[in-house]
Amino acid sequence: MEMELVLLTQQIMNGLVNGMTYVLIATGLTLVFGVLHIINFAHGEFYMLGAFFTFFAAKLLGLDYISAGIVATLGVAVLGILANRFFFWPLRKEHEFTVLLSSLGLALLLTNGGELIFGADPKYVASPFADGIVPLGPVIVTQQRMLIFAVGALVLVLLYLFIQKTRMGKMMRATAQNPEGAALTGVDIRRVYTVTFMVACGLAALAGALVGPTAMIFPTVGTWAVLKGFIVVVLGGLGSIPGALIGGLILGVVEALAGGYISMGFAQAIGFSIIIVVLLWRPNGLFGAARRA
Amino acid sequence: MRLQSILAATTAAFIAAGTMAVQAQEEPVRIAAIAPLSGPGAFDGQLAVEGMEAMVAIVNENGGVLDGRMLELVTYDDKGSPEEGVSAAKRAIEQDDVDVIVGGWFSSVALTMKEVTRDRILTIMTTSQHPDTTREGHDWLFRLNATSTMMSGAYSQFICDRMDLESIAFITINDDYGRLEVENYEKLLSECGIEVLGNEYYNKDDADFTTALTKLRAANPDAIYVSAINTAQGATIYRQIRQVGYRGTTIASAGNMNPKLVELSGPALEGVYSVSLFAPDSQDPELLAWVAKYEEMFDNEPSFIGSIGAQSIEVLAEAIDAAGTVRDYGELAETIRGNEWDTLLGNVTFDDIGQAEQNIYLIQIQDGKIASVN
Amino acid sequence: MLELRDINVSYGRRAVIHDLSITVPDGKVVTLVGSNGAGKTTVLKTISGLVRPTSGTIMFDGKPIERMEPHDIISTGVVQIPEGRLLFKDMSVAEHIELGGIRAHSGGRTEAERLAWVYELFPILRERREQKAGTLSGGQQQMLAIARGIMANPRCLMLDEPSLGLAPIMVDQLADAIRALNENGITILLVEQRVDLALRLADRGYVLETGRIVIEDAADSLLENPRVKEAYLGA
Ligand SMILES: Nc1ncnc2c1ncn2[C@@H]1O[C@H](COP(=O)(O)OP(=O)(O)O)[C@@H](O)[C@H]1O
Ligand SMILES: [Mg+2]
């Protein structure tokens, strides 16, 4: 292949993988918004916890990377259940804005708690796939990044099937579209809350476990995650899972091309610019329906 | 020199021992330690304060200063932000009435904080590398680290003379410090015939550098120079350099090597060069004593940033004794400027604007350890 | 079988229902009529558990239900077809019918029997099984809302203004459907602003004004009641 084309392909690959991490983060965020109409600023902290739990599961329990990642995902999913039980469920009748501010408080609590318990020093989640390279012709991708993409794609398919085909998935969609109608149909709204937070926090943790080995982790890393998540969610449309998928991949690829052909210093600004352009063109995001009155 | 310092220490200990019984109840000398203790720089701030604590313990075990006054650290969190640095310094001066201030680990904080301390309190700036910290400093302000200009002078000499490179590319943090770095090295390295093939800036909260590194790899330079002041980003960059398939030489920016970075970067940092004021295998007895004390008190490995913290305490303690005063800042500053100080990092002198002159060592990661290169 | 006694309801500090008592006897059709804002919907929401009464009791089959969760109330056989249908606009007809059965009261018709019955009552829904609720006509949406309710196997079915927004021909069909449900043993509590229609379907009626029951009588007597005639029958 010609040099320029190789470089372009490489950058698009880089972007797709980064985009998939954004998708995993944004999916939980958009799920919680879509089903429960909650904007959860603490979502990034569950990503952070996923990465740290993976680190400690490997270190303290002696687990291999994959088992540690699974344990972390399940552990944080349980924390999601607790966060709902003691935090979001009791607040459900409050104004949306109150809930949003409270979630900001929860984020601070988890970050500071993280600094206290995990220490401020950065940590590295070791993975046997981190440095192994999968050569796809002249294009280079590490095994870890292939894993991120493959697991991300698989999880999205499973999530799609869960939401479309299972009884619980249907109850979640019903709650999303008409909470009162759902309650009068017999949907146990509290269980829907529980399952939604469990799935969303589990997804965030899975993203943390997968992305952990590609960078360093520290207790404030959740701020980065939630920022990326929100860009994607706004881009794709609040509450839309296909929107999170397309939005995440677009953001990843655009950042990679901007970084690769202009400058990484601009990549972030370009992320924000595409949001503005998309919102001017489609105020509810690429896949967003107008919000119900 | 060594003999002299041992002599000095012994004498000091003697005097101290003689007077301690009488003077033990005196007011401590209170030193404000303003450092990033939360947020992304929290780990670096922790290492810095630990380094100071260890040296304070040594000084106090030897009888403190001014005939038996103990040193006491009062810590403040600047969160790595200029605004927080300013408010911490104000609190230290106005509310807590501390005797001296040690701070300025990041240049952005040092540059704003110096305006609060100007003509009010004696201030030691530490790892900040921006030339303006001292160039636009004040009569009672000193800075220990070499400026980025001094560093780049020494480092580019090493690079040109020893590394046999024909081309180089940079990946640099996008701030005042980073831009100055690139400007300096592009000029200095071009002068000795190394071709500069590119520079990529990144932001201080980026976590993925593969796009920039892919681009640099495509330019195929003999070496990539990594300017990273924060340990987490640094380690990520060193790992990702290998992960994008680059196999050339990696050069780490001056003054940012620490054991944690080595641990986090794994094999990616093996053989990588940097320069430091801290010669890791130095046998200086003061350094050894500090390392021993540090390891006794803390879990982290002693680091360069910690040794700069320790040096600030050492210079202050010796100068306060020599001047016979803490609060007469004019006298104390005159004393600091007018003498050579024997510290754990070797001998230090200060010029008219308070800038330290000290040794700069070339170091390399060998078998997962920071080692000096001679 | 369904009995509300001395119910009071407030939204925040504002009391909207005052000492309300209603009895819906087994197998009968009872209607609750009143003008807009009288509090009819609030009464049904309170029975369904969406709103908690500040005082009073609601007994179904002799058991108190006023502290139960909405889905548990449905399991006892008390089912509501809400005002405005409250359908899930992006979900298919089949999915609505499936969800309708998730908390079905056990006993009586099996799920398969109910499904067959629903499609017999509303054959159009069978044709439109895969269509999204949001794309149905107003009449079809009301049919779907009733079908969803029937799937819950109600013993007592509450309908909140089912005629709202329907064309006259659809209103007749609706009346037939309500009659058919009642003939099949389902007790009905019908809330309507169309007082004439409601009283013609009902055995008994209650008139609600600003949160208080002001008149209570047999439906045919109410049709003749001068105060009802003047206020609600436009005579
Ligand atoms: N969620 C609510 N919050 C506050 N007030 C309400 C709410 N819902 C209804 N109301 C008020 O309660 C009263 C009764 O309303 P409603 O039960 O809907 O009456 P109806 O169904 O007879 O038209 C009205 O004055 C209405 O404004
Ligand atoms: Mg109503």
Describe this structure in words.
Chain C: GO terms for molecular function: ATP binding; ATP hydrolysis activity; branched-chain amino acid transmembrane transporter activity. Chain C: Residues 2-235 form the ABC transporter domain. Chain C: Keywords: Amino-acid transport, ATP-binding, Nucleotide-binding, Transport. The complex is a heterotrimer of chains A (293), B (374) and C (235). Chain A is mainly α and 293 residues long. In chain A, 75% of the residues lie in helices and 3% in strands. In chain A, strands 1-2 form a two-stranded antiparallel ribbon. Chain A is globular and about 60 Å long. The model of chain A has no long low-confidence stretch (mean pLDDT 92). Chain B has 374 residues and is of the alpha/beta class. Helices cover 47% and strands 19% of the residues of chain B. Chain B contains 13 helices and 15 strands. Chain B has helices at 2-23, 42-61, 82-95, 107-117, 132-135, 148-162, 176-191, 210-219, 231-243, 259-265, 285-297, 304-323, 329-338; strands spanning 29-35, 71-77, 100-103, 123-125, 141-143, 167-173, 195-202, 223-227, 249-252, 273-276, 341-343, 346-350, 356-357, 361-366, 369-372. The two termini of chain B are 21 Å apart. The chains are: A mainly alpha (293), B alpha/beta (374), C alpha/beta (235). Chain A binds chain B through residues 3, 7, 10-11, 14-15, 18, 112, 115, 119-124, 130-131, 133, 140, 142, 214-216, 218, 220-221, 223-224, 255-256, 259-260, 263-265, 267-268, and chain B through 37-40, 42-43, 45-46, 174, 200-203, 205-212, 214-215, 218, 231-233, 235-236, 239-240, 242-245, 260, 263-264, 266-268, 300. The complex binds adenosine-5'-diphosphate and magnesium ion. Adenosine-5'-diphosphate (ADP) is lined by residues 11, 16, 34, 36-42 of chain C. Magnesium ion binds at residues 40-41, 83, 161 of chain C.
